[in-house]
Amino acid sequence: MKNDLHVRTNFSASASRDWNWERVLKKCQDEGIQRLAITDFDTCIFHVINKIVDTSSLFKGQIITGMECDVCENGLTFELLAYNFDPIKTLSWSYETYGTLEMRQTKIKDLLIDVAEKKHIKVDKKAKFNGKVDFGHKYVYENMLKYKENQALFNKYNIENLGDFYNASTKQKDFPLYVSMNKIFPSVKKVVNFIHSVGGFVVLAQPCKSKNKTNLEFLLNDALKNDVDGIEVYHPSHSKEDIKFLLDFCKKNKLIVTGGSNFNGKPENMSVGIQNIDKSESEILKNMKI
Question: Given this model, what pLDDT does residue 274 score?
């Protein structure tokens, strides 16, 4: 059975605008996916649509309710994946917690611009911004690129692309444009408590992605402390060594193992289906209540 429990549509700011849910479902059908979780950032609106609209003409496999939740803990921004929850109740909660995509990205953009001005970092703050389609970190990063004097800052912190900039500005406290997202995102406990209350379960997403061992130790300990149910072990950014370590951690702590492609319709994330897996994919889902 071919599965993917980490796929996004253009309801997520970080996904390509060209990949709406219809196109994503068709791709997953064409690629032979049989169990699929659409996990858009901070909203489960697709899963509400899926309760109303018959999507079987596009995708004939099992669709698992999912959402990727941004969280901020101890000044560190990371993600949880929620599954199998009540989508109607969760959509209302996600709006109260995160606001709309436009509200969220506008707040992030404004926070970054404010810090840049205070640190005398050049950003073209007059450039057009549309929170419905623009990503706050992307807007600031691309406008910083307009000024040659910012290159020294990028070189110092090894920032070569938007992903590097996002990680530095949300996870690296010594980076001049670091902004704690606790003004935007909830705590782990708040997400876990709610998702459990509506019948779902929560896993820690892609914990080895940053390759920062200090952050990894914090993420794993924080997950255990806050009753997270599992770990996304299989992820394109995880090496074989990462996977072995995480599998051992899950076994020791009796945690669910999940995996996904992180598909978002962009050139670097175009594959669907769990990757780097050595055993039957059915084993991954055996402990899940789906």
Answer: 84
Q: Contact at 8 Å (CB) between 187 and 72?
A: yes
User: What CA–CA distance (Å, rounded) separates 250 from 233?
Assistant: 9
What is the model's pLDDT at position 101?
84
Q: Classify 263 in phi/psi space as left (phi over 0), alpha (psi -120 to 50) or beta.
A: beta
With a CB cutoff of 8 Å and minimum separation 6, the contacts of 99 are 107
Of 204, 201, 206, 216, the C-alpha closest to 275 is: 206
Q: What are the tokens at 26?
A: 């068709």
pLDDT of residue 163: 87
| Residue spans of the chain under pLDDT 50 | none
CA 198 – CA 69 distance, rounded (Å): 15
Predicted TM-score of the model (pTM): 0.87
- CATH superfamily label, 3-99+186-284: Metal-dependent hydrolases (3.20.20.140)
Residues 163-204: tens digit of each pLDDT: 899 989 988 889 999 998 888 999 999 999 999 999 999 999
Which residues make beta-bridge pairs with 67? 82
**What SS3 class is residue 32?**
coil
Residue-range domain boundaries for the chain: 3-99+186-284, 101-182
